[in-house]
């Protein structure tokens, strides 16, 4: 007896990873005319109340909307958006957790559009999976993992957990911070751990957020309130509360009334008493960057390429900038999709930009973690000085959005 092997399927692009970035990539490449297979070992959870639902939210900043439009996703997402018109930074580093410095960065200073739009991650998955079902060139296979990768000059062969074998011109690793594709391609990674965790949940509050995203600095890390659409007619926000690991775990385990009191105090009461309306989830904080974003027939995207703390809504927006760059290169020269010159250009364009942002976010995070009062006072005065100069303020806002 001899073993039969599964027939090999041909595709232009194979995407390993069906998180938000992988799903956008599948929709974008499929809409652009490339045959695309997208696999993920875990079927996406598309309901808020379901086990394993991703309780985080994602703010798509202005430049990301063009990528979502190219993927045919923006029309589906827009009705569920909460606009981010003002980015407010509060320093509460004094003796008590009260606001002592408030600075507003208003999108109106740059354009008529808001900075961005916020969405719950489970809802993004629901709309993205529905979009993939409309695209004849996309073959989405939830519940299937990538288990083997062999590459050569003419293409890549990927082995899947269901026994299927797929030949692709380009393999995109969008399979997260512990990327199988990155490891299989022999690409190294540099990781920094902060000893912090982010506690995420959604709340309601009596005062409307008025489309203001508020980041409150004290110690341990920033506490951020990000606008969400109203819940049953009541104003709602997402919370991202970064703290040192043991403190984050203590907070996550508190009975609900005590947790709500701690949240309200840490928020300086800016929106009134906060009421917990979802479960709490914890995410370890780290900075990670791959040594290169490409290998033979492989491009790394999103957290397979870079991981940063959730400050200034940079993470997924950097991922969509990766995708925009890769898609531009693919559409400019589809005949040479996945070849060495294209992938070298991708790394050359994206790696320095991501590295610069990683350094900036690392500095902001370390500043927000400061415990000693004199250093917290220094942070407040530095923020005040930066804000005071309008050209500097505009430059910071444009840099934050990824605008040239």
Mean pLDDT across the residues is 86
Tally of strands: 20
**Shape type:** globular
Task: Report the sheet-strand fraction.
Answer: 25-35%
User: What's the main sheet like?
Assistant: 9 strands, mixed
| Beginning-to-end CA distance, first to last residue | 63 Å
| Total of helices | 11
| Proportion of residues in helical segments | 25-40%
In angstroms, what is the radius of gyration? 22 Å
| Uncertain stretches | none
Helix/strand-derived category reads: alpha+beta
Cofactor: FAD
Pfam family, one: FAD_binding_3
Pathway: Cofactor biosynthesis; ubiquinone biosynthesis
Organism: Rhodobacter lacus
In short:
Its cofactor is FAD. With 404 residues, this protein is an alpha+beta fold. The protein has eleven helices and 20 strands.
Can you describe this structure?
The protein is of the alpha+beta class and 404 residues long. Helices cover 34% and strands 31% of the residues. The strands form three sheets. Strands 5, 6, 12, 13, 14, 15, 16, 17 and 20 form a nine-stranded mixed β-sheet that branches. Strands 1, 2, 8, 9, 10, 11, 18 and 19 form an eight-stranded mixed β-sheet that branches. Strand 14 and strand 15 form a beta hairpin. The radius of gyration is 22 Å and the shape is globular. 45% of the residues are buried.
């Amino acid at each position: 007896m001899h073993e039969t092997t599964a027939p090999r399927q041909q595709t232009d692009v194979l995407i390993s990873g069906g998180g938000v970035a992988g799903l956008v990539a599948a929709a974008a490449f499929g809409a652009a005319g490339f045959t695309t297979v997208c696999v993920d070992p875990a079927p996406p959870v598309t309901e808020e109340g379901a086990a394993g639902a991703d309780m985080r939210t994602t703010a798509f900043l202005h430049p990301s909307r063009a990528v979502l439009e190219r993927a045919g996703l923006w029309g589906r997402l827009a009705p569920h958006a909460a606009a981010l018109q003002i980015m407010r930074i509060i320093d509460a580093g004094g003796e008590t957790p009260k606001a002592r410095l408030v600075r507003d960065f208003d999108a109106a200073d740059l354009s008529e559009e808001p900075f961005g739009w916020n969405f719950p991650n489970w809802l993004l998955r629901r709309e993205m999976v529905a979009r993939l079902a409309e695209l004849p060139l996309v073959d989405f296979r939830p519940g299937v993992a990538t288990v083997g990768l062999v590459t050569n000059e003419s293409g890549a062969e990927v082995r899947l957990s269901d026994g299927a074998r797929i030949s692709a011109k380009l393999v995109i690793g969008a399979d997260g911070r512990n990327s199988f594709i990155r490891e299989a391609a022999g690409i190294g990674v540099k990781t920094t751990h902060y000893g912090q965790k982010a506690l995420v949940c959604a709340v309601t509050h009596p005062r409307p957020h008025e489309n203001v995203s508020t980041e409150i600095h004290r110690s341990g890390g920033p506490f951020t309130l990000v606008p969400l659409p109203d819940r049953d007619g009541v104003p709602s926000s997402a919370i991202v509360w970064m703290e040192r690991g043991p403190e984050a775990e203590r907070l996550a385990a508190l009975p609900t009334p005590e947790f709500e009191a701690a949240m309200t105090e840490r928020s300086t009461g800016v929106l009134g008493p906060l009421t917990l309306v979802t479960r709490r989830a914890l995410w370890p904080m780290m900075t990670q960057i791959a040594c290169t974003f490409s290998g033979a027939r492989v491009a790394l995207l999103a957290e397979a390429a870079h991981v940063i703390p959730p400050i200034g809504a940079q993470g997924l927006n950097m991922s969509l900038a990766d995708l925009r760059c890769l898609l531009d290169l693919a559409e400019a020269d589809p005949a040479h999709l996945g070849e060495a010159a294209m992938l070298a250009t991708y790394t050359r364009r994206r790696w320095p930009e991501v590295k610069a942002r990683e350094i900036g976010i690392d500095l902001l995070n370390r500043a927000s973690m400061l415990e000693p009062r004199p250093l917290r006072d220094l942070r407040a005065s530095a923020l005040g000085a930066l804000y005071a100069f309008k050209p500097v303020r505009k430059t910071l806002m444009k840099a934050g959005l990824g605008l040239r």
